[in-house]
Every structure is written in structure tokens, then in C-alpha cells.
Structures
1.
Amino acid sequence: MTAELGMLPLAEREQELPPRQAGARASNQHWTEATGAQLLVVDPFVDHEQLAEDMSTRGVHVTCVGSTLDALIEFGRLRPTAVVVAPETPGLPAVDFVRKVREYGPTFVVAALDRADAPEAGPLLLAGAGAAMTRPYTAETVWDILDKSGNSFDDHAKVSFGPIELDTRAYLVRINGERIADLPLKEFELLRTLMYSAPEVLSNDELRLSLWGDTHAGPADNTISVHVARLRNRLQGIARIRRIRGRGYSLTLGS
């Protein structure tokens, strides 16, 4: 059950660059902002892997950390669309963490509580949290709260490049308006990532960060090559995935 204990007014979000201008984001930090919505989860008690997998099908990258101190570092790196924080998380007190986050902009903060009437709810809302939810929560719970708050991830859900249209919320791809057979999850995420930055070149580390949430936790380069090869075969005659030796991959139009 989700308990929305209060919604606080938020400043208007900074306007995002459109996907085709994502190449103007020079640094890795800014590049990740342009490739989809970012959710930072500061809760050592949630099933991180399941949440990340379920949110990825909606075009949302989940980064999970076990302390509020680590969360501050990740917040500075990612500038996430939304943050989930549990009051019991070790490190900086959760109330102070929320205040710090709110100092730097309109990121929406959701408190994760053990019960709806938890005493921590009030201080977290006063510190700047916009809503609260009870455990156990799911990707659908988080999505629903953000939808109701006006901080939906929908702006990141759709992207197009040439004749290709991709909708992460509906999990579908259209070519010239016609829906194609569903892609395996990683190929779907790979296509979305390449489309967001096309025709810019993305390195293997940038692809790991986008598809697996970490440049170190992702697979080896040859595994990425396999995913690229499979997606390339599906796009024959529609678009081309170029491999630039020593740099990475780029999506361009034409075979």
C-alpha cells in the first residue's frame, strides 16, 4: 500500500535538451542525464536488482546505494530525476540528506517507510520530501507516485530517430509507423541509448553506464559486441550501427 503523506510545491524543472542535441553534453555526467530518467535509491532494504530491472523496462536507470554519504556522491554525478530514501539508511541522517538534495534543485524526493504512520515521515516531509510510501514498494508504486506528483518520467519514455520510434513505457518499437516484434530487454535498452545520442559515438563504458548502471559492474566488451551484433542484424536496411575502433558505437541512418 502506498501512503502519500503530502506533496510539497516544487520549482519548475530545468528544461532538458532534446535527444538529438544530447551530443552537446560533453561530460559523462551530463551524457547520462540526456539518455533517460535517473532514479537514485538510497535504501539498503529494497531488492535493488528487481527494482532496477523493472524500472529499466520503463526507460529509467536505477542507481542503488547503501549509505547517504555515497548517495550524495551519486547525486552530484547523476543529477537524478527522483530520489527514494529510507530514514534508517546509515551515514548522514536522512533529514539532513534530504535538505542537501533540495538545496541543489527541484529533484523529487520520496521517503520509504516501514509503515504509513512512521514518526520519521513528518521531519522528512518538512525537510523537502514530496511524498512517502510504505515498504515493500515496487517499480509500479514509484511510477504511480511520480505520475500523481507531476514528476512523471514520461518525458523520457519516447524517442525517435529517422523512421524508428521507441516507446519505453509501452515497450514497443515502430519502423515507419509499423510495430515490429518485441526486442529482448538488453537490445531494447541498447537501441534506446543509441537513439538518444545518435549519431554521436558512445564508448563501451558509456553503454555499460546506461544499460547496467555502472561502468565497472557491466559485462566485458565482447558481451557488448554480441548485443550490438544482434541489434545490427535486426536493423538491416533501416539503420546502421557503426563500430569505430578505439572509440565505440554510433547509430546512423541507412544500411
2.
Amino acid sequence: MPRITAATVADHRASQHAALLSAAMEILVTEGAAGLTPAAVGARVGLARSSVYRYFSSTADILAQLVEDAIPRWAARLTGATAGGPGLEARIRAFGQVTLSFVAHPDYALLRALVSVELPQECQDRLDQLHETMIAPLRDVLAEAGHEQPDLVAHLGWAILGEAQHRLAAGAGDPALVERTALDVLCRAMLT
């Protein structure tokens, strides 16, 4: 029988779940998606593979839960970056800076992993919903400024930033130049 290491069974399960997610993220960052399996995650925290299946149904489920954990943090950072501020351009630029900073964070490994794993449709649908929460702060800033097409323009801006992220992650070009150019293009596109 497993040893309970918390005050309640629910607390124990929550602690184990958090430890498994942390281990999964470490594996993802150091070994990539190919190294991420329920067995590897269990081994990292000292649990049998069969015990890991109490928390995750598959590798795709592990990834989905990592995304569920990470996206709200980034959405909150994006919302904070666009809150108030000295003007529309500064708020758009702040949104872009936070979005581009994602590349240097370990959470960026999630994007690379998601491309290599086929997610069940319900996971993909949820991922799409979460993705929208990251675009929402830019859309809100544009709507507040009276832009006629805030949703479309926010998505186009997200595409600009996505290309810049891709180039930064690939090491294509001087990072400072890529960031500066992307932010300039983003602001010009949003402010016309």
C-alpha cells in the first residue's frame, strides 16, 4: 500500500500530481517529447508506471495537463503587461515583449512537444480555448481603443509574434534585432 505523505488523501494526491507535472516538465525540457512517457515521469518521482496512470491516461494527457498548468500563468502575465499603461503603443509593445520572452522560458518546450504529439480532439479543443485566453489581452486593448476589427487584428498580431518566436527559438538572426523588428512591425500593424 502506498505511503500517504500528507494530512489527507486529497492533499497527498494533489502533492503527487504536482510532483509528476514538475517531473514531466523537467523531462520535456531536458529530453524533449521523445523522452516524455508515463514510465519516465514515474521513475523521476519514484512511482511505478501503473501508479502514474492514476493521474494521466497517456503522454498526450501529460502534455495537455502541462499546458493547462502553463497557459493561465502566461495569460496572466500578458494581461498584466497590457493593464493600463501610458498609451496604446506602449501596451501593445508590452504584450509583444512578454509574448517573445516565452521563447526563453522552459514552458516553451511545450510548444515544441505539442507539434510532435497527436492530441485527442477534446485536448486540442481545450488547447484552442486556452490559446484564445493568451490573445484576449491584445484583443481587449484594441477593442478598448475603438479598433473596428479587434479580434482579427489581434490574431494577425499573434501571427507576427509567432514568426518572431520561431526565429528566436531557431537562433535565426540577432535576437535583439528580431525582437525590435517584430515589435516595430506589430505596433505599425496594430496602430493603422
